[in-house]
Specification:
The chain has 710 residues and is mainly alpha-helical. 62% of the residues lie in helices and 5% in strands. This is ATPase.
Length: 710
């Protein structure tokens, strides 16, 4: 749950109502017009109720999600549940939340009310420990739903000697603008009048307080009549409550300069947060210089049109959905929407392209985080490309370029969603389609879905041969090797990897994919019993990773090193390599790398005089739970599942049936962080980019200061 950054004013009765309903029911929906404070009330109520739920309170912001099919993915992401499978996200949520006790806040459901209603209904029926607190301009109409209708703040005192809530809110926000501002006998009547004229809507009150830099309370009130009359006339068919809010926003809009109005409209193309660089690129041109954007953004922050997010080293901005919708109306009315959407698409195509370049190097963790922050806007750009005629090829390019994020940060299901849509719209044999084919084939392989993977990879290979696309041919052959490897054909896989590496070398390709081909070739030889050649390729991967500061492929190399050392009887080194594999993959939230290493760690607990069969079985249970979020356990491969079966046999032979079952059950009850902490001996890895001081095992590659070459 986000921390509050300004004082919460009033709403004591409403908070008591929500708190009481949450104790008695499992679904509470806070309804009311836009700008009335639904989100703020829900966050305050959820924070107070969090202690009563073993797994706490979690916020899922629905407002930035436009496609109902992505709602489940967005909730998974908000709950920090990573899933690699091809299953529907709702099925994954039901499974992963089955034994949780938590409060889920779904904020801003009105534009996806049917999808939200379906999601809530299914989750409440299937997850007995779940409660939902939703905010929406209309009810979800789900069985068991209890509504809290949030009215505007009162502009009249509740009792003699007290301050009206709307007046108290105005005074608090005004003091942030003018530190000496106070409600006095001289200004109380005028402030009360202003709040009444604003109907006590918190958003309107806060915007009015922000104008005290330029106007007095009396001047603000005097300007309301004309602005209300003009803007109400423009929205005669809108519901009354929307007329009030739009009038308030329109009045604030009128008080902005022409340049401020212009950038407000242009900033409406962003979904979720954005940084200054993005705003400067997208909004500049056609009457607005790039060097004007900083001052204008700062001005809109002052006016509460934009909100500032992030810490001082990574400042980001966002716009409330209601204000964003208003700006979008002006953008459409001005006939500039298509140009701005194209510039938005171009910027986030650049984010994806530069991310793909920087993925091979020392800034992988930062790249993963930067792409995560851009996720909502990347979705918006993909949606634009898929719904705008003539943009289909760019949809293929964008979805394919993001392979590093889909694969490396736990978004396989969503990645395939976008690629499947793009491939269906653009059947012509272009280079963009070829890349999309091998990427979707690769992701399907990682999910154990060879039925879908093999045809896509074969189509990519045939197209590459027909068109002379050597790069696509290399990638197609490489990923066909992956399919052979998990299909228990290590000899065939080794031949394909050798062929792919020959193609990569011929075209001068060197990146994380090439390193993964080397790693996979090494694993194929290890599975064939050729330890010498297997270790040779794994050592080559480590050398290149250390040279380039690459960590993601290096983590997979650590898995192979652990497997090799275990086969050679070097248990201490094998454990160190496997733990470091878990630690690094946890930084990227790559569940596949984590679960592969965790199964090796379980087997290692059965080795030597200090063997702990109970701990081995606990780790197997934790790995089992993770596999459910990855796909078919061990990809359906008997070869990859070998360590698991051997560990299971040893544990069964050395434990009683009850011990065997209880330890496994204990492991399946561990969440991701708890499972990783257990695998690492009690220490949880730091955030992406954190150092490794004090951790046992091999250190990750050094991370020199990069000198990007654009």
């Amino acid at each position: 749950m986000p921390a509050e950054v300004s004082r919460f004013i009033g709403r004591e009765a409403e908070l008591r109502a929500v708190d009481g309903l949450l104790e008695e029911s499992r679904l509470v929906t806070v309804t009311g017009p836009g700008g009335v404070g639904k989100s703020r009330l829900a966050l305050r109520a959820a924070a107070a109720a969090a202690a009563g739920h073993a797994d706490g309170a979690w916020l899922a912001e629905v407002g930035a999600v436009q496609d109902p099919l992505l709602l489940g993915h967005a909730v998974l992401e908000a709950l920090r549940l990573t899933d690699h499978t091809a299953r529907p996200p709702l099925d994954v949520l039901v499974e992963q939340l089955a034994d949780r006790r938590l409060l889920l806040v779904l904020d801003g459901c009105e534009h996806l009310v049917e999808a939200c209603a379906e999601l809530v209904d299914v989750l409440l029926r299937a997850v007995p420990g779940l409660k939902v607190l939703a905010t929406s301009r209309q009810s979800l109409r789900v069985p068991g739903e209890h509504l809290v209708l949030l009215a505007p703040l009162s502009a009249e005192p509740a009792a003699p000697g007290t301050e009206a809530e709307a007046v108290a809110l105005f005074a608090d926000r005004a003091a942030a603008v003018l530190p000496d501002f106070r409600i006095t006998a001289a200004n109380r009547a005028e402030v009360s009048l202003l709040c009444r004229r604003l109907d006590g809507i918190p958003l309107a009150v806060e915007l009015a307080a922000g104008r005290l830099r330029a106007l007095s309370v009396e001047q603000i009130t005097a300007r309301l009549d004309d602005r209300f009359r003009v803007l109400t006339g423009g929205w005669r068919t809108a519901p009354p409550r929307h007329q009030t809010l739009r009038t308030t926003i329109g009045w604030s809009h009128e008080l902005c300069s022409m340049q401020e109005r212009l950038i407000w409209a242009r900033l409406s193309v962003f979904a979720g947060g954005f940084d200054l660089d993005a705003a400067e690129y997208v909004c500049a041109g056609e009457g607005l210089e790039a060097d004007e954007v900083l001052d204008l953004v700062d001005s809109l922050v002052d006016k509460s049109v934009l909100l500032r997010d992030g810490d001082p080293s990574a400042v980001r901005f966002r716009m409330l959905d209601t204000l964003r919708e208003y700006g979008a109306q002006w953008l459409r009315a001005g006939g500039d929407e298509h140009r701005l959407l194209c510039r938005h698409r171009d910027w986030y195509l650049g984010v994806a392209t530069w991310g793909e370049v920087e993925w091979f190097g020392p800034r992988q963790a930062e790249t993963a985080e930067r792409t995560r922050l851009a996720h909502a806007n990347l979705r918006a750009a993909l949606e634009f490309c898929l719904t705008e005629p003539g943009e289909e090829q760019l949809a293929l390019v964008l979805a394919g370029t993001l392979w590093f994020y889909w694969v490396g940060s736990g978004h396989l299901g969503e990645g395939r969603h976008w690629l499947d849509r793009a491939l269906a719209l653009a059947p012509e044999p272009t280079g963009a389609r070829a890349k999309a084919l091998w990427v979707t084939g690769y992701m399907a392989t990682l999910q154990g879905d060879l039925v879908r993977a093999r045809p896509a990879l074969e189509e990519c290979r045939r197209q590459a041969l027909d068109t002379g696309d050597d790069r696509a041919l290399a990638y197609a052959v490489h990923r066909q090797g992956c399919a052979a490897l998990i299909g228990d054909e290590p000899q065939r896989a080794a031949e394909l990897f050798e062929e792919a590496l020959w193609h990569y070398n011929t075209i001068g390709e060197l990146n994380s994919n090439v390193l993964m081909a080397m790693f996979e070739l090494g694993v194929a030889y290890l599975f064939l019993g050729d330890t010498e050649r297997g270790d040779l390729w794994i050592d080559r991967v480590r050398e290149i990773c250390e040279e380039h500061g690459e960590q993601w492929a290096y983590a997979y190399g650590l898995y192979a090193m652990a497997y090799s050392k275990w086969a050679g009887g070097e248990i201490r080194l094998a454990r160190a390599f496997a733990r470091e594999c878990v630690r690094l993959n946890h930084l990227f939230r790559d569940l596949l790398g984590i679960v592969l290493a965790m199964d090796v760690l379980a087997l290692l607990e059965t080795e030597g005089p200090d063997a702990d069969l109970v701990e081995a079985r606990v780790l197997q249970g934790a790995a089992h739970r993770l596999w459910q979020a990855v796909g078919t356990p061990f990809f359906g491969s008997r070869t990859f599942g070998g360590p698991h079966r051997e560990c299971e046999q040893r544990a069964r032979a050395g434990l009683t049936a009850q011990e065997f079952t209880d330890a496994f059950r204990l492991g399946t009850g561990l969440g991701l962080d708890a499972a990783v902490r257990r695998a690492l001996g009690g220490e949880l890895p730091g955030p992406p980019g954190a150092g490794g001081e004090g951790r046992s095992g091999p250190r990750p590659p050094a991370r020199p200061s990069p000198v990007p070459a654009r």
